[in-house]
Amino acid sequence: MNSSAAPTSGLPLEKISLASTLDLLDVLWRRRVLFLFCVTLGVLGGLAYYVRAKPVYESRASLLLIQRRPETITRDQRYESSFEDYVDTHRALIVSPMIINRAIETAKLGELPSFQDTEGADLRKTIIGSLEVTSGPRDLGDHADNIMAVTFQGPYAEDGPLVIEAVLNSYRTFLDETYSGISNDTLKLIGEARDLLRNDLQSNEDAYIEFRQKSPLVARGREEVNPLQDRLAAIETRRTDLLLRRAEIESQLKSIDAARAKNYDATQMTAFVASLRSQLTGSGAPTTTALDTQLYQLSDREQQLLEHFGPNHPHVVALRERLAAVRNLQAAPDMGPIDDTEQADGDPAVDIVDRYVSYLSQERNWIDTSEDLLTQLYQKEHEVAQELSSFQLKDERYRRSIDLTQTLYEGVIGQLQEASLIKDFGGFDATVIAHPELGEKVGPRSKIILALAGLLGSFLGLVAAVGAEMLDKGFRSRADIQSRLGLRVLVEIPGADSQPSPLWLRDQPGTAQSEAIRSLRAALLFNPQFSAKRLLQLTSPSRQDGTSTIAANLAISISQLGHRVLLVDADVQHPQQHQVFGLQADRGLTSLLQEDFDRNLIQETDFNGLSLLPAGAAIGLSADLFTSRRFAELLQTLRDEYDYIILDTAPVLDRSDACVIAAQVDGVLLGIRPSKDSRSRAARALDSLGTTGIQPIGAVVNGVISNTWNGATNPLWVGEPLSSTMDASHESLS
Asked: Which residues contact 321 (CB under 8 A, 6 or more apart)?
């Protein structure tokens, strides 16, 4: 009968994870000896280090760093942040190779006991590595960072103050040299700039004086008088007046011609000319005064032209003609009313008109000549003005250069005075506010070392425990079997140091092994889940699991309840049950499968109700017999005669007989003896049974030692394989 009962407890095998089985606390408890060994080893190592380590002494000094403020002297306000990065710069400067080298040379630090075995670059690196410079926390105030703590750690308490003092002295000497040199260099550069600007200013002034001596008169500024500009303006004004005068003359000549064209009589012409004369002079009165003024001006102009051009120059000749016309006009009588008598006697009106026209023509010619003269004079004066403008531009350039040099010179003088005043107020002041004292011991610290050693040992113990757990391929507890295999553990059979007899119920009825068999019997017979399973098979992954002993004792325990029980030894290659009970095994199961059914092959044992069917003669292909129809018929026949049938079969991993038989029974019990590789073997056995669709109804754990199971460091399984005790058992039974 096929028995494929589902597992009664635990998780499916494929859902089991490492995290669910390797609970850390359980691992540490099981491997507590290994864990404690690693912790102890770590602590001992820490103690050894503490004993052998050299002591470390720490010396400390405090340094106040203040930047000198020149603006407090010069009143030059500068807006800076409350925290400046120069503190970090000086922190790096104190432990720089340059400062350390100076300290080594000046204080001979290499002779100190702390550095006797160190020289050169290694000495510098050692000191730098032992020094630490930190600044105060900012929450102490805006200038808390100006306080720097210099710390040195070394193997000798006396060397720390010497090293710190040497380094600080070297550092302060460097500050004094650096910033003093900067101030002196600044003064020198400013002095050189002053001398250079003074020489440039003197050279520019000398060149300007020489230029002014050679150049013509040049106007300077808008308020000064420029004679050339005045002359050009006067010439232009005179030319404008002449043009206006010419326009008047042309207009009067055209008017006279128009009057003549209209045939005015002598009286009308005389009156008309008188009117024109009054317009020309600007009044209707006699023109004697105006003509005298004009005559005076023309005479003065004649003298000027004679000085410039001589008596024969065309301009002079034209001016003389104009003078003659003015004199003729001045000699003419006043143009009052003319009567008929005067006109009849000699027609004086005609003479007056002609003389006036002649005067206008002469004046027009003089205007043309004067205009030409003024044009030439304007051109000459304009050329002179252009040349003078070039001199003026050069003059302004000289003056601007002198003014710029003067401004720079005055600025440099001011900077020189300021630099001279504040040269002692620049740089930094480094003041030791707490001198280094004899070093205090800061290491090695026993509590810290032991704590770290304990932590390291705990970590190594944890790693070792987990590693041992991972390498251990055996089962560690009932829960481990149930979770990994998905099988309910029906009973745990304790192991013993010796096995005088495999029949526990007969020879040791009061032992824990016998009680475990009775518990297994109760689970199979009185549990409703298993009570209907009357044809049971016991098998195991390997031969050392001891299922033959379990099968024999289970058969005895069931028969003791008054049931008819048949124990079948189906391990035809390595039969053992006949040795356990001391019976003959020449013929048995193999004979029944190959011959006709012979009831005499089933032998009675010394226990009431218990019969044994030995394996019989060994054959090569036993699996073929178990798959035959005769085996199924045999099982059915035996089922009708006995209440319970227990088959002791070969291990699953040795032969395929167990898997073939498992498909024809009511239930399969899997015997497991925990060992270092029992986990993998049990899993493989389950896989083999699973290929035929069989799931064991439970597991029987054999050979358990109580002080190592369910929390063992390394489970110890005692007891020898059943085959090693068969001889002694056979003798006792016989």
From this structure: 362, 365, 366
